[in-house]
Amino acid sequence: MSTKRESNFLADVDLTREKLVNRLFYGTLVVASVFGLVMLVLLIADVLWEATQALSTFDIDIGNFLTGTSSSRAEQAGFGASILASLWLMALTAVLAFFIAVGCAVYLVEYAPENRTTRLIEANLANLAGVPSIVYGLLVLALIVNDAGLGSVILAGAIALALLIVPIIIVATIESIRAVPSSVRDGSYAMGATKWQTIRRVVLPQAMPGILTGTILALARAIGETAPLIMVGTMLHATRYPSGPLSSFSAMPTQIYNWTYQADRMFNGLAALGIVVLLLFLVAMYALAGYLRNRYETDDGSISNV
Questions:
Q1: 3-state SS record for 39-96
Q2: Domain residue spans of the chain
Q3: 3-state SS of the chain: helix, strand, coil percent to 5?
Q4: In this structure, are residues 240 and 81 in contact, taking their beta carbons and an 8 Å threshold?
Q5: C-alpha–C-alpha distance, residues 255 and 237, integer Å
Q6: Average pLDDT in the 138-157 region?
Q7: What is the pLDDT of residue 256?
Q8: What is the spatial distance between Cα 229 and Cα 161, in angstroms, rounded to a whole number?
Q9: What whole-number distance in Å separates Cα of residue 11 and Cα of residue 5?
Q10: DSSP 132
């Protein structure tokens, strides 16, 4: 009887229509993926073309461009001060965000009780990862730059970028910690290790590939952000090298933003060259994320012993 009912059910289902829907859905995904890839290639090709034209037309000195400071005269403008400011920003942002994010993730996974409040916190963390970056810039402008009197310095920009990427790193760390098999924890407890020893010497080393990958990808997003830095009050002309966290600055994205709005076409060429430099930084960060992930996965057995 059951076999007869199953055959009647299969007969009622229009398999031809289902296959057609599957093919249409698959084709839509392929078209969307190809469209995004083609647009990316066209954008990169356009930037490279503009940079090549600028080098040949305006006879730009690459050495001066990479080491000089910005200027109101296109012939003397350089990108070096902005590069150094971005390096300062990334270093401070990484320090501010990494330890806070990993600590929060460890607490939520290992110590927080499994209840509605914990689930609500995790859901809100995922939502915070999608908040527009300008919101964090406005928050830092109000609380840190103005109320605390810190001013428009590199540290204020780093705080804004750290607030931006902390939720991303927390989510990545939570998923990485939960991916560690429970048998690994049980083995550590069986050998007499305490909970903190197990987390520090077993769980975190096992989860480190995912944590590092999430952190570096989050920093790769932060290095290209313009809106929060403008809100913080970054300079539009990096006329001097930053000497520390309390120096005024103009990062790579804000300097490119300023050059694109200049009437002189040579500034537009400098902006294209700046975009190429920024893209090289992004590629280097993605490569570093892949290298560190592979290295930790290779050395995993030797570093995770209790």
A1: HHHHHHHHHHHHHHHHHHHHCCCHHHHHHCCCCCCHHHCCCHHHHHHHHHHHHHHHHH
A2: 12-57, 66-296
A3: 80, 0, 20
A4: yes
A5: 7
A6: 89
A7: 92
A8: 8
A9: 10
A10: -
CATH architecture type of domain 66-296: Orthogonal Bundle (1.10)
CA-CA distance, 113 to 107, in Å (whole number)? 10
pLDDT digits (tens, 9 = 90+) for 42-94: 999 999 999 998 888 888 888 888 988 888 888 888 899 999 999 999 999 99
Cβ proximity of 45 and 31 under 8 Å:
no
Q: Among 193, 196, 197, 218, which Cα is nearest to 282's?
A: 218
Q: How far is CA 3 from the centre of its chain?
A: 54
User: pLDDT of 244-262, one tens digit each?
Assistant: 899 888 899 999 998 988 8
Residues 221-248 have pLDDT tens digits of 899 898 899 888 887 777 788 888 998 8
pTM for the full predicted model: 0.84
Q: What is the CA radius of gyration of the chain?
A: 25
CA distance 260 to 64: 19
Burial degree of 200 (CB within 10 A; 0-12, 13-18, 19+): middle
- pLDDT range class, residue 127, cuts 50, 70, 90: confident
